[in-house]
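pasting Alpha-galactosidase for the record, 204 residues
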Amino acid sequence: MIVSIFFYLLFFIGFSDELNNGLGRTPQMGWNSWYGFRCSVNETGVRQTADALVATGLAAAGYQYVNLDDCWQGSRDAEGIIHSDPENFPTGIPALVDYIHSRKLKFGIYSDRGNMTCGGRPGSLGYETIDANTYALWGVDYLKLDSCHTNGTPPAVEYAIMRDALNATGRPIFYSLCGGVTKYDLWLSDVGNSWRTADDSQDN
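structre below
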């Protein structure tokens, strides 16, 4: 797979250390799969990107996050646990996390506060505790939570549910709120480490 590498500053409107996880005190920097691959992302491309971050010196410069965006999800099992798409991620997310960590980088993952992601995969609505525990077990360092297919619950309420679930795991996971908010919302710093108030960036 040819890797179209799009490194960028994962820069949002505000930053917070209100979650007691010690994160978000400086802007998070790294790579996100959506802008180059969208739903064609697979584990080979993610591994190659991690290698490129190290080889080019970007990792040493602070670009430490390798973030897997939408469309990594397959289905949930009988216990509600999310599993990766077996075709594009045949070795599973835990093995991918281990590889990213072996490169001295941090691994980020994506979900949605609705019942489906923007790409039509299973969302986290109603599964916040299960998903938070799963991500912590896998060793995830970063969660981007999107805002598609929601049920109309105010963002401040829905985002806080996942915040509490992440906090309860005991693992420091950077919490990125994606969409459904504005820079004027006063509750943001109590809920997320960062928040996004604009449309998608483009690989251009």
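The radius of gyration is 16 Å.
The chain is about 30% helix and 20% strand.
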